[in-house]
Amino acid sequence: MFKRHAPCSNDSPGFHDSIWNSKKNSGDAIVKKLIAGCLILTASLPIAFMAGCGSSNSPTSSNSNATSTPTAINTVAATATATIVSAGPAALVLGAASSTGAGGNFAILGVSINGIYNVSGNLGEDQVGGSYPPAYGSPTFTSSSPSNDEYGVSAGGVAVANGANDMNLYGSAAYGAIFAASTGAYNVAIAEMTVANTTTLTSSELGGLSLPPSIYYNASALTLDMTGTSAPLTLENATGNPNNVYIFISASTLQTAFLSSIVLHNVKPANIFWVVESATTLGTVGYNSLTSGATNFVGTIMSYAAITLTSTTLEGHAFCNTAAVNMLSTSAITFP
Fold this sequence. Notes:
The chain is of the alpha/beta class. It is 23% helix and 30% strand.
């Protein structure tokens, strides 16, 4: 590191040797420190690099699983984003007919109820034009209290005795929620139809169709599998929000064939509504008592005239305004 010069004439050899040795030792020490520093720096770089890579994605936490948290959060966030997209109309409000607790959870409303059947939910019989005392057929309740009672209501909402007395006018409140002139769900659905929000079906037949959430209307009738193809109606909720709503409105009747069915893709039965301005007949056409199986139907039926279920399992409600609800060949209704 240092170049040794020739000694001056008046300097002694020992003096120059001492200076040389001092400079030499000092230079060697500096070199050693530089080498040591380089070694420490070289060893530290990989550690710093690894630590930096980890800290960019991992939150500061003592949890050993902290590095998996961002993946889980991203997955949940993506799912939540996919499920908040709304499509179709708003759900119809069934009010007292579907409220929880005593006096709600009605499965059937009708002027009379006939047949041998299984039912989950309360029964309400409107006595305007009906028999007295009311007759409910022979129901077998698959639900428990308070959703396994029979309520009879006479003209003007006066309670009549049959099974559970309707002293609280539960049946009357349920009828009003569905069929009141301006505020009932039946009339609200019809009033909601506009050119902008309603899809007019060019054919009455629903079998083989795959439909997104919307209001659907046909000016003549609605049928399912009446052509004999055994093709189901598919309700395809592509947006991913199970709260999206379907409303089907028939200006005349609703009919389904025996063994017909509806396929749901991410759709809740409680968000399917059928508004029928005449009579509803499910599973009757083509019925054969020797053939096993049943017709499957879903949604809340609000029918102006009679409702007849033949060997049909309905996940929903059967609400009739002016006539009977007939439950034939051990049909069943389960709460949606």
